[in-house]
Amino acid sequence: MTDAAELRRRTREFLAAHPPAETDRLEFLRARFDAGLAWVHFPEGLGGLGAPRSLQAVVDAELEAAGAPDNDPRRIGIGLGMAAPTILQYGTEEQKKRFLKPLWTGEEVWCQLFSEPGAGSDLAALGTRAVRESGGGWVVNGQKVWTSSAHLARWAILIARTDPDVPKHRGITYFLCDMTDPGVEVRPLRQITGEAEFNEVFLTDVRIPDSRRLGEVGDGWRVAQTTLNNERVAIGGMRVPREGGMIGPVVKTWRERPELRTPDLHQRLLTLWVEAEVARLTGERLRQQLVAGQPGPEGAGMKLAFARLNQAISGLEVELLGEEGLLYDDWTMRRPEHVDFTGREAGYRYLRSKGNSIEGGTSEVLLNIVAERVLGLPAEPRTDKDVAWKDLAR
């Protein structure tokens, strides 16, 4: 299935058999998955047809023209962008068949239990422990933090330390955790915006069967790299139209409010507009590279640019609006399903963008990744590289 015309024909036949206006939304999404039109580059039987990733655009265009429902990708972004590619690469056949379909249809929301209060930027230093029981399962204890969508999630991708006697990168194992299991407690983290889209998650004697381990015992760091590389592409490489994203509202205000303009702001806006367009086109190129294989460290560069641009653009917008830019519409504590950068006012964008250089890997860590893995510069000295995790100073 590598021909666009054949894929277009198949999509039209699917639409004829499942008219969007007459078919229940969830029923439509399930049928789309079964027809291999969910993500066409996935294998047959797992929502795909084994076709090139680039042909997904053919399917999407036909479905959009027919008014077909989507799977609300912003709500289930962690599942789509991080859990799914990791399960596909490392999961057993049983795990793939169990998790990928409800993940794609949005019936089961996912979250990511990686960061910890004492191991944020240095993720490999995580201290959540998973101890093997005599029956083969695992008992997990620890705390995770900055967990998006944990208050909505049914499942989580989780990394925990299974061997404290080896260096920190080697004693980690990757699990799939049921967020409804006893011992899982989710608490909201209220942010500077007033919302609580993030959470902290406490794991107390949580039992995970070995059948929900992803990859080999002790190989969790390698498995997690697949998740992290996809996460950075998902955050920094999102497809946006020209003047989409954060630059859009600023340009709109500039065109509609000439009384706010100054020569200095004009020059700065032009500079940021060009940089935003360069980032957008670079993201398109990165997505084209994904057609040929798995995402690499280049996604770190895109995520870096995304964070820096969002913060610079939102700062310029607040300055352009003057006193209006200091207003904030609503400090009500909410637990939203997703981040809405462009649906709120300038004050929200300015405050929320401060988190862009932290979430998905801090900018400082990503600079190291770009330096070492993209530019090939010498690695920073690491005195803890060969030291057992239990002997590290904490």
Description:
Helix content is 40%, strand content 12%. The protein has helices spanning 4-17, 25-34, 56-65, 77-90, 93-105, 220-236, 247-256, 263-290, 298-321, 346-352, 363-374; strands spanning 110-113, 129-132, 138-144, 155-161, 172-178, 184-189, 198-208, 213-214. The radius of gyration is 22 Å and the shape is globular. The longest helix has 28 residues, at 263-290. It starts with a helix and ends in a 20-residue tail after the last helix. The protein has 394 residues and is of the alpha+beta class. Helix 1 (4-17) packs parallel to helix 3, helix 2 runs antiparallel to helix 5 and helix 4 runs antiparallel to helix 6. The chain has a four-stranded mixed beta sheet. A four-stranded antiparallel beta sheet has the order 2-3-7-6, with no helix packed on it.
Show the helix and strand layout:
Elements: H1 4-17, H2 25-34, H3 56-65, H4 77-90, H5 93-105, E1 110-113, E2 129-132, E3 138-144, E4 155-161, E5 172-178, E6 184-189, E7 198-208, E8 213-214, H6 220-236, H7 247-256, H8 263-290, H9 298-321, H10 346-352, H11 363-374
Parallel strand pairs: 1-4
Antiparallel strand pairs: 2-3, 3-7, 4-5, 5-8, 6-7
Helix pairs in contact: 1-3, 2-5, 4-5, 4-6, 6-9, 7-9, 8-9, 9-10, 9-11
